[in-house]
Design goal:
single chain; 589 residues; Glucose Oxidase, domain 1; Enzyme I, Chain A, domain 2; 3 domains; 8-stranded mixed sheet; 8-stranded parallel β-barrel; 22 helices; 47% helix; 14% strand; binds phosphoenolpyruvate; binds magnesium ion
Length: 589
């Protein structure tokens, strides 16, 4: 038995035979010099292929819409943009004309040069975009050479898909009903396969290095997307305990077992459970999973993966769509739209930020306050969409009260502009801010005078408190949501919210961890907001506990002796949970 360790990119457990996805393999690409005068013919071929692919992509968009019930289509719109990119096409044409080469050769060369530029970038987001370029290049080469191999058609029975990495097109073309899980050599938590896997509740482990060469097709493996491991040649005992986990998971995820709205405690008390969403992720089935509102709409995804900034109208459409969607979750559902949180590891192509330390740079609210036209446009679009439902505006990465005051002034100016033009918006719209920088938690009492609610972004709060990059494996041991320093900051934020009658949420990933999220609930947060596929487990955990249980749970860290570490706290909380809720077994890992 061998256990491979990778990145846990989508929670859940799967056991089954391996399907090795080898993609299209190497497309045989002819490269030759064309006879003088034949260049126009080459360009006509290129044009025909572009047309054919455009049609394919448009068909694919339809398929994705049908399969996911909504519109996870931005990635394919991005592929259409690459395909129609004048600069890229111009370079291919220039190469055909000046070097007299066939179009396959020009396509390969020009895409190769662009790929090399992307690969040099330090930013994981941009490196991930190499997959998009590859995807479009393969489509072009397949069309130009008439290569017809569709590896996704070979997946005909339920299997764990093992691949080097998967492009977005490959991921959505695989038949969902046969995918038990994903295990890839490469990939990251921001990759499309990870996003889709989470949205579709498919367990996934990435960054396994060389799994494709360690397994054989058909071999039975165990995939643990919660802890990021894959077990090869499992022994009988491991196999059967894993089988029990899968059974538990199936039982917990079956939505029919929901007796009352997610977040209802055993004694009828409540901790609201909302979903985190962003443009481009399929939203079908959120209601069945138990989401009762949207606690975090990451608007910055509208800026990513494209060359130009979205205008007011496009933003308005996107926000309105999300607001209408939120109303389907519950008639009183709120949707918290977070204004542009760019910078750090999220830098759109349309924005030129070059900083040596982007996580501490001109990001998020700081960027908006220094790019007021962008801020105003976004606020106008959000305000206009606010007539469709119950919208809350949230400011990210606020580190001092001046930023809140300034943002509030700009919001008031934008409201007056709308008033003078007779444009409707929700006059009672509320604003809130993220607590994700230690200074915000330390100043929470002061912040509370300027907003109506707080949302604790533990992803960043832990990173900034511990000075440990949230995406760096080498310091992952320091990334401790239950470190006493983080707990002190969370408690200060909750106390400030309670004293000032503010609602307080946690919308970082830790909200979805049964041990940690329950602790936030026990400390008194009103809302836990998480990826929708994680809601059922959290909902069932809360449904099994009373407020008195939560009060007891809240006391655990304080009852430990001085010198307690984050690990001690986690262990003590975990042990309490396992004793209290034995039926959840390893799902509490
Ligand atoms: C957070 O920091 O916890 C958060 C929710 O924001 P993001 O993950 O988008 O930075
Ligand atoms: Mg954050």
């Amino acid at each position: 038995m061998t256990t491979l360790h990778g990145l846990a990119t989508a929670r859940g457990y799967a056991a089954g035979p391996v399907f090795i996805y080898r993609g299209d393999g190497d497309i045989p690409v002819p490269e030759y010099i064309v006879s003088p005068g034949a260049e126009d013919g080459e360009l006509a071929r290129l044009k025909r292929s572009i047309e054919e692919i455009r049609k394919d992509l448009e068909d694919l968009v339809k398929v994705v819409r049908e399969r996911t019930g909504r519109s996870d289509v931005r990635v394919f719109e991005c592929h259409l943009m690459i395909l129609e990119d004048e600069f890229l096409c111009g370079e291919i044409e220039k190469r055909i004309r000046s070097r007299h080469v066939n179009c396959e050769s020009a396509v390969r060369k020009v895409f190769g040069m662009h790929r090399a530029q992307f690969e040099k970038m330090n930013d994981p987001y941009f490196r991930e975009r190499v997959r998009d370029l590859d995807d479009v290049e393969r489509r072009l080469l397949k069309s130009l050479t008439g290569y017809r191999h569709n590896p996704h058609l070979d997946l005909k029975s339920p299997s764990i898909v093992v691949a080097d990495d998967l492009t977005p097109s490959e991921t959505v073309q695989l038949p969902r009903e046969y995918i038990l899980g994903f295990a890839t050599n490469g990939g990251s938590s921001t990759s499309h396969v990870a996003l889709l896997a989470r949205a579709l509740a498919i367990p996934s482990v990435a960054g396994l290095g060389n799994i494709t060469s360690r397994v054989c097709a058909g071999e039975e493996i165990l995939l643990d997307g919660t802890n990021g491991t894959v077990t090869l040649n499992p022994d009988t005992a491991t196999r059967s305990s894993f089988g029990r986990l899968i059974e538990q998971q199936r039982e917990i995820l079956s939505s029919s077992t929901f007796a009352s709205p997610a977040g209802t405690l055993k004694d009828g008390g409540e901790v609201k459970i909302y979903a985190n969403i962003h443009p481009g992720v399929p939203l079908a089935g959120y209601s069945e999973l138990g989401a009762r509102g949207i606690g975090l709409y990451r608007s910055e995804y509208l800026w990513l993966n494209r060359d130009t900034e979205p205008g007011e109208e496009e933003q308005f459409q996107a926000y309105s769509e999300a607001v209408r969607f939120s109303k389907q979750l519950s008639p009183t559902a709120t949707i918290t739209i977070r204004v542009l949180d760019i910078g750090g590891d999220k830098i759109p192509r349309s924005v030129s930020i070059k900083e040596s330390n982007p996580f501490l740079g001109n990001r998020s609210i700081r960027y908006l306050l220094t790019h007021r036209d962008v801020f105003r446009t976004q606020l106008r679009a959000i305000l206009r969409a606010s007539t469709e439902g119950r919208v809350i505006i949230m400011y990210p990465m606020v580190s001092c009260v001046e930023e809140l005051i300034e943002a509030g002034k700009i919001l008031e100016q934008v409201k007056s502009e709308l008033d003078s033009s007779g444009i409707a918006y929700d006059k009672n719209i509320k604003t809130g801010c993220m607590i994700e920088v230690p200074s915000a938690a330390l100043n929470a009492r002061e912040f509370a005078r300027h907003v109506s609610f707080f949302s604790i972004g533990t992803n960043d709060l832990v990173q900034y408190t511990m000075a440990a990059d949230r995406g760096n494996d080498a310091v992952a041991h320091l990334y401790q949501p239950l470190n006493p320093a983080v707990l002190a900051l969370v408690k200060m934020s909750i106390a400030a919210a309670k004293e000032n009658d503010l609602r307080i949420a946690v919308c970082g990933e830790s909200a979805a961890d049964p041990v940690v999220g329950t602790y936030w609930a026990a400390l008194g947060v009103d809302v836990l907001s998480m990826s929708a596929t994680y809601i059922p487990v959290m909902a069932k955990v809360l449904a099994s506990l009373t407020r008195a249980d939560l009060d007891e749970y809240a006391k655990i860290p304080d009852s430990l002796p001085p010198g307690t570490t984050a690990d001690d706290i986690f262990r003590a909380c975990h042990d309490w949970m396992v004793k209290k809720l034995p039926q959840f077994g390893d799902l509490l890992a």
